[in-house]
Amino acid sequence: MAQGYNQPLGGNDMPRFAGPATMMRLPTAKTARGLDACFVGVPMDIGASNRSGTRHGPRQIRAESCMLRPYNMATGAAPFDSLQVADIGDVAVNTFDLKKSVKIIEKAYDRILAQDCVPLTLGGDHTLTLPILRAMHKKHGPVALLHIDAHADINEHMFGEKIAHGTPFRRAVEEGLLANDKVFQIGLRGTGYAPADFDWPREQGFTVVTAEECWYKSMAPLMEQVREKIGDQPCYFTYDIDSLDPAFAPGTGTVEMGGLTTWQALEIVRGARGLNLVGGDLVEVSPPYDASGNTALIGANILYEMLCVLPGVKYP
Question: Cα separation of 81 and 6, whole Å?
Fold first, then answer.
């Protein structure tokens, strides 16, 4: 254990069902000042189109994260011996006004990025990624994007609204927030409104990898291609929990059958090591549909694995 770095509270020091209700039972911080990375919640579901409940996602992810330990036994990553990390709490969204919430989120991430801190976000519905990308663009310019999802989220509008959880990446393209030739969308599947629903992102230069292309395969070769194409471009990582098959993660708002497995998820996140990751999020965990808590637990693990592949993390 490195001296001077925050450490998660251990299960032998305090029972896992007790202690602070923070991500991995880490210390809290009021701001991102002095941190290399932070966990931050965006408790929002007013951008969701089907099942609600993701406003409770950050709290439940934190609760289930009490099972996580500091060292990654598979990869050897030691994030808490490498980076100063804390849980900085939740963004105070306006739960009655989505457009105001989007502005609030962008300003909150402006403040985080001004401290040269890498934010890892507990969602919340996928609308939140748009204001984060707006803040990222001000700091880094157009970013590469690693987007793992059952859905492309490139709708022109939803019920006449341009801002919702199904529209963020069309708005991001329109606003020039992305390095389009360095965008990967992995896990897309399900039914559509038109035969060409997945063609729009391809026309923008995105690499689209459907779930069917992932069936029965290791994701390691794909992630080699991702690393080669993205290179050292600042990269944002957004992971929608509904990318996973509902056998693994039923607690989400827009379920699609035939999804990724948890071991493929681990290969994808661990395969992001070496990318210049400037932030990430895990979205669309809906605790009311997560009776066992396993969806939130998987979400917590994915966020931990994201932390483990951030630049500067020590490996053996």
Answer: 8
Q: Which residue has the tokens 């994260």?
A: 65
Nearest to 270 by CA among 217, 224, 211: 224
Dump pLDDT digits (tens) for 181-239: 999 999 999 998 888 889 999 999 999 999 999 999 999 999 999 999 999 999 999 99
Contacts of 193 (CB under 8 A, 6+ apart): none
Query: 258: Cβ–Cβ under 8 A, 6 or more apart, which residues?
Result: 189, 190, 211, 212, 215, 245
Q: Where are the domains of the chain?
A: 23-308
DSSP string, 57-102: HHHHHHHHGGG--SS-TTT--BGGGTS-EEEEEE----TT-HHHHH
**Statement: the pTM of the whole predicted model exceeds 0.85:** yes
DSSP category for residue 140: H
Can the peptide bond before residue 293 be classed as cis, meaning omega within 30 degrees of 0? no
**Per CATH, domain 23-308 is 3.40.800.10:** yes
- Classified as helix, coil or strand, 146 is strand
Q: Please tell me the predicted confidence (pLDDT) of residue 187.
A: 98
Q: How far apart are the first and last CA of the chain?
A: 14
- Tell me the per-residue pLDDT of 243-276, one tens digit each, with 9 for 90 and over: 999 999 999 999 999 999 999 999 999 999 999 9
200: tokens are 């729009």
